[in-house]
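Most newcomers find our protein records easier to grasp once they have seen one. A learned vocabulary of local backbone shapes supplies the integers on the structure line. An example says more than a description, so a record of this kind follows:
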Amino acid sequence: MLDKRLAFFERDPIDWKGYPRQAFYTRLLQLKRSHAALGNGADGGVLEWVSAADDPLLVFRRIRGPAALTVRVNLGDRPRPAAGAATLPAWGWSIDGG
């Protein structure tokens, strides 16, 4: 709910008042801007699913030329070994790129 009147056609900055996941989303946005495989549309990489549909470990890759990124997400409630990465904790994730 707004606690002030907004000016019409004038810049009106937003006071975010703290956000507990700010560092997480900032990191993801920085990664998207800096990695060629994460571009949009024709500028983006090809999506390659690596994990099986019934596996609680979701793994996919985005590839564009020499740029590749691998995302691993543990959708289970216990730690799981992840090929090419350390064991992921329950509900954990990792992003590897080069």
